[in-house]
Amino acid sequence: MSRHDATRRAFLVRAVVGAGSVAGAGLLPDASAQNLDQRQNATATAPQTHATGDAGHGTFFNAQDAATVAAFTERLMPGAPGKPGAREAGVLNYIDLALSGAYAELQEFYRRGLAQLDAYCRKTYNEPFVRLDSGRQDAVITALEQGKAAGFTWPTAQALFDTVRTHTIEGLFADPVYGGNKDFAGWRLVGFPGGQAVYTPADLQNKQAFTRAPMMGLQSQAGNAPKA
Fold first, then answer.
1. Nearest by Cα to 74 from 119, 132, 28
2. Rounded CA gap, 219 and 76, in Å?
3. Which of the pair, 135 or 217, is modelled with greater confidence?
4. Confidence of residue 78 (pLDDT cuts 50, 70, 90)
5. pLDDT at 5
6. Residue 54: pLDDT over 70
7. For residue 4, what are the contacts with CB-CB under 8 A and spacing of at least 6?
8. Which of 70, 89, 107 is nearest to 12 (CA)?
9. What is the dihedral of CA 103, 108, 111, 117, to 10 degrees?
10. What is the mean pLDDT of the chain?
11. Long-range residue pairs from 11-15, CB within 8 A, at least 24 positions apart, any chain
């Protein structure tokens, strides 16, 4: 098994475990959990899309912070040939939009967290996070996860890791209407067919994997809704 495959597998295992915690609001940061319903209500009727990339500005992130978050989330869930990672799934766009809306109370958390992250990387490796090779980026992320990265006050190193990981999971597997899970990449990855307009009695009794196309999300339903 390659390092990429091992990292992807570890992330997916954590994501599955985390899904149960999200359902009980245990995985989401406290402030985020309190605003989940607000974001769903705000975006369900107005799908949002915004191109956010390493070289451009998003709705919240500047170019430097966008590049850092893109690199960080890609190391959490790296892509591989035929297997989309965080970058292809639009996780950066999801986080950027969320921080401009229902997660706005986490803006300073991200600003200070990313500044501390780069300060730690410069002190340890003489380069910011985005300029480190993948091995060193993984080492930095492991130090964050274990609370061993020095120089963090608020947020703590572990809190930054937990929050970015949580938002990466959300960006991969939430309905595409929220700006991530581009082209249903996350759903396709785990074999989830999306919301279906109708389930027949046979569908409900079938014990095999449900694979009927098309996969639908809130955004596609909104686009196909009859106009008044």
1. 132
2. 26
3. 135
4. very high
5. 59
6. no
7. 78, 80
8. 89
9. -100
10. 79
11. 11/76, 11/77, 11/168, 12/189, 12/190, 14/165, 14/169, 15/169, 15/172, 15/173
